[in-house]
Write a structure and sequence with these properties.
2 copies of one chain form a homodimer. The first copy, chain A, is α/β, with parallel strands linked by helices. Chain A is 48% helix and 13% strand. In chain A, strand 6 (150-155) and strand 7 form a beta hairpin. The longest helix of chain A has 23 residues, at 212-234. The two termini of chain A are 38 Å apart. In chain A, 55% of the residues are buried. The A-B interface holds A 1-9, 11-18, 178, 210, 212-213, 216-217, 219-221, 223-224, 227-228, 239-240, 243-244, 247-248, 251, 256, 259-260 and B 1-9, 11-18, 178, 210, 212-213, 216-217, 219-221, 223-224, 227-228, 239-240, 243-244, 247-248, 251, 256, 259-260.
């Protein structure tokens, strides 16, 4: 096991009716002026907005609002939020939504307290030295951003999607009410399932094997996402399935599933170029396309690992005489599962073709300045090969 | 799944050589005056004391020392620590040791900042409203106190052992270096294995079943404790086994394995009376005696749960026609495992006899003022019945 640091200070309030307590919780922390940051009109339609606003008002919290977060949140909106927070002396940023609203909030919170341009955090030009506290009310089980240290954003001027990690990105508290996800459409539920699986799978598929508890927790997360995922597709109002998905999404990205290992989110990088080019590609859908292709490209470098995955997560029977068959069966089972919940399996289904591959591969190496580590080190040509597998 | 709150803010530094960084870490937090609290001479003999003192000195930290913590730490020593901290204007209490040193430190830290007698926390007369920060360097994988909110202490005047829970008990940071446990004798290694398994088992053996990820993480913890436990008994210097045990001990008691369930640490209460009466009984050894007896007494109230345990944790084959057999096989496998690592299986081996049972049962109900909840509600007579099963 490698040395590691584990830190996950976010206080989680999980369960029914918890979002109606947000005002009381913020008051207990002593904050009086907040920014409420959210997406489109859905939280207004389904009543979440009213419940939250009532709770905030009842507890004497002054609220500025910044709606309009899009999937793959954009820098322009972040800059607007930073100005607003500075003008209003905001003390806390409250995100209501999924990973997009939360990541955008994290960046507003850090940007408000640092003099640089927020994009500087993503290109390694600056690191936040302070930040406003962020709190979240989660409405989508997917990204795990509600307890994670990471934030991802799209620079719409450069068509680039990038992420960065900082302890300042860890929310102060997060409210997870599974009932708020009952109305998430099937497609987005499925994208969320892929997203949470991938956070764990990317940490799991490495060379370094000995991290036994990390492995078993990772396998637990994957099994739960698959079992509860299938159930939520059948009955979107199944509380236990939605609850399992919601908690699984958080655990999958709070780093419990990566401790003691070297890992690198390779498929995430491959996907970022897809949705960087076509922002309408949902993160989970893009990952569902690239992961099986990446796995087929690299699995021979670590057949025992892919066998363990196949056997422990998908209950494949071990073929002791031909382990490669078991390894492949696990990859196939993953691809089948993604398809079964309505995910695309090719670039073409995402509106991408052969002609886009070169550009994506070049950008993915940061114009030749980096290779992607992992089971096989990937340069531009290898990345292009993987994209071609999923054409 | 029940509503729950999850909060585990302790920053964990895990791995080789980490204890030599303690001074640098404390300095980064900005503390200058600390109390170093530890047990007997073992940390002096094995070099841990020197490494820690050097690191503290190199970083300009002023150190008061309070050695002499015993297993089942005592109130008198805690009161001494509180006086010392007040006199020296101590800013942080650093525990070096296992659960005893850590729990004693937690109580010193809280006692210093509150005017009441520290025993008041345990009898519900007062709750801490503030506390000094606590940090730990763990030398025994067992109690999980290094990330938990609980503290347990013995009142030697009353022959009573009691615990209490508070967020102020959560350490600021904990240093977990598995190498520091190489020299732990086999008996205490085994006690630690039982201890960590029991923290999870007590949360697992309940009525409320639906908390899928909690279940699977609990089963992961149990499997790791068993597998790595066996290995550490064979080779005490196996780094991976010691590392798995150390991290498993923390995860088993940071509440990840109890989220979304009603639970109550019944066997812990039964054991507290044993070591309350005979302080030489190690916590883990006492638990190894009472848990199988408790399980045999209650398993018929929830046969599916005991079957799931038997099948998933011990790989017992499910007897679909006679589930009771599978349930019992799991309990037997647990008892066998405890015996195989050198644990006692009867009260008599712990120096307790029929004549002690009445007193323990009476104290366990707090002199008739409470019953123990769980799969069967236990009054004095039921508690005595369970003690008799393990005579």
């Amino acid at each position: 096991m490698n040395n590691f640091e584990f830190y996950c200070p976010t206080r989680v309030y999980f369960g029914k009716d918890t979002h109606g307590r947000v005002g009381e919780i913020i008051k207990k922390y002593g904050f009086k002026k907040i920014l409420l940051h959210y997406g489109g009109g859905s939280i207004r339609k389904n009543g979440i907005y009213d419940t939250v606003m009532k709770s905030l008002k009842d507890n004497g919290i002054t609220v500025s609002e910044l709606p309009g977060v899009k999937p793959n949140p954009e820098l322009a909106r972040v800059r607007e939020g930073i100005e607003l927070c500075r003008r209003e002396n905001t003390e806390l940023v409250l995100a209501v939504g999924g990973g997009s609203a939360i990541d955008s909030s994290k960046l507003i919170a850090a940007g408000t307290k640092n003099d640089c341009d927020p994009w500087d955090f993503f290109i390694g030009k600056a690191l936040p030295e302070d930040a406003l506290p962020v709190a979240t009310i989660l409405t989508l089980a997917a990204a795990g951003s509600e307890t994670s240290a990471s934030a991802v954003i799209t620079n719409e001027e450069l068509n680039l999607k990038r992420g960065y990690t900082s302890d300042f990105n860890r929310p102060l508290f997060s409210i997870l009410n599974p009932e708020l996800t009952y109305t998430v459409p099937k497609f987005h539920t499925a994208c969320g399932i892929v997203d949470m699986m991938m956070h764990t799978l990317e940490r799991y598929m490495t060379f370094k094997q000995e991290a036994e508890l990390t492995d078993r927790i990772a396998e637990s997360v994957l099994k739960c996402a698959i079992r509860a995922g299938k159930q939520a597709m059948i009955d979107p109002r199944d509380f236990e399935a939605r609850a399992t998905l919601m908690w699984t999404g958080s655990v999958s990205h709070n780093n419990l599933t990566g401790l003691g290992r070297d890992y690198y989110l390779v498929s995430h990088q491959l996907e970022h170029e897809m949705s960087g080019l076509k922002p309408e590609i949902t993160h989970g859908a893009g990952l569902a396309v690239v992961f099986p292709a990446w796995a087929k490209y690299v699995y021979k470098t670590n057949i025992p690992r892919f066998c363990q995955y196949a056997v422990r997560v998908f209950n494949c029977e071990m073929d002791y005489a031909n382990p490669e068959r078991t390894a492949l069966a696990g990859i196939e089972a993953t691809a089948e599962f993604f398809k079964s919940i309505g995910m695309p399996s090719t670039l073409r289904e995402c509106g991408l073709e052969e002609k886009h591959i070169e550009e994506m591969a070049v950008k993915c190496t940061n114009y030749g300045k980096r290779t992607l580590p992992g089971l096989i080190e990937l340069g531009k040509d290898e990345i292009a090969d993987i994209y071609r597998i999923c054409l």
